[in-house]
Amino acid sequence: MTSETNLPLPPIVLDHPLIRHKLTHLRRKETSTAGFRRLTRELSLLMCYEATRDLPLEPVEITTPLETMQGEQLAGPDVCFISILRAGNGLLDGMLDLVPFAPVGHVGLYRDPDSLEAVEYYLKLPTQIASRRCIVVDPMLATGHSAAAALTRLKEEGAKRLLFVCLLSTPEGIACLQKAHPDVPIMTCSIDRGLDDHGYIRPGLGDAGDRLFSTR
Ligand code: URA
């Protein structure tokens, strides 16, 4: 999942029928908080399955009730998840259902209203970040500015093998992220039409953080 050139890889759009079905129900305004959380967990589990497709394995000898055999296990330490606060946390449960031993980092950024620069308010990362596959999660790739700033911070901390995973994205967000980080593949369940004047993804699903945490 890495590019041999400086050209960005095309975004990977996950279009499995289960993902399409669940995403449709996630988008519906009638979906309750409980339903939204359940669907997000299920979708993130399915995304994690794809995002971990090429993790390295190592041989391991095991004994079944009948005989000894050569099995395989994940070669570690490898994968970690990095949540972009706060909505990224909504994708962690499903991912950790599949990879329960993975360390988890958090990046918190807000946009300074005057300078419009991304300002970091929280950063806590796993050890050995430079040698890990870092799956960076945020449900909504809208303008791409905060995702690009988060990836820049992670690279400053030594991360080299990054993958960005989101539920919904926009052409603008993808272009922004690819321009800033052409080496980072983007995995998404949908490329929506675009952004409205308030920075919302259209047709979108509304504010992912508010729907996950039942806030306004
Ligand atoms: N963040 C959200 O939660 N929703 C959007 O539509 C855009 C950014």
TrEMBL record:
Q: Which cofactor does it need?
A: Mg(2+)
Q: Which residues form the signal peptide?
A: none
Q: Organism classification, top ranks?
A: Bacteria, Pseudomonadati, Pseudomonadota, Alphaproteobacteria, Acetobacterales
Question: GO molecular function of the protein, one example?
Answer: uracil phosphoribosyltransferase activity
Gene behind this chain?
upp
Sequence positions that bind 5-phospho-alpha-D-ribose 1-diphosphate: R86, R111, D138, P139, M140, L141, A142, T143, G144, H145, S146, D207
Database matches in HAMAP family:
Upp_B
What the record says about family reads:
Belongs to the UPRTase family.
Organism (species): Acetobacter orleanensis
- A Gene Ontology biological process term: uracil salvage
Q: What is its EC number?
A: 2.4.2.9
> Keyword set for this entry?
Allosteric enzyme, Glycosyltransferase, GTP-binding, Magnesium, Nucleotide-binding, Transferase
Q: Which GO terms describe its cellular component?
A: cytoplasm
Keyword Transferase attached: yes
- The UniProt record lists the Phosphoribosyltransferase domain at 13-215
Report the co-factor binding details.
Binds 1 Mg(2+) ion per subunit. The magnesium is bound as Mg-PRPP.
Q: What is this protein called?
A: Uracil phosphoribosyltransferase
A UniProt-annotated Pfam family: UPRTase
Q: What does this protein do?
A: Catalyzes the conversion of uracil and 5-phospho-alpha-D-ribose 1-diphosphate (PRPP) to UMP and diphosphate.
Q: Where does uracil bind?
A: I201, G206, D207, A208
Reading the lineage from the top rank, the first entry is Bacteria
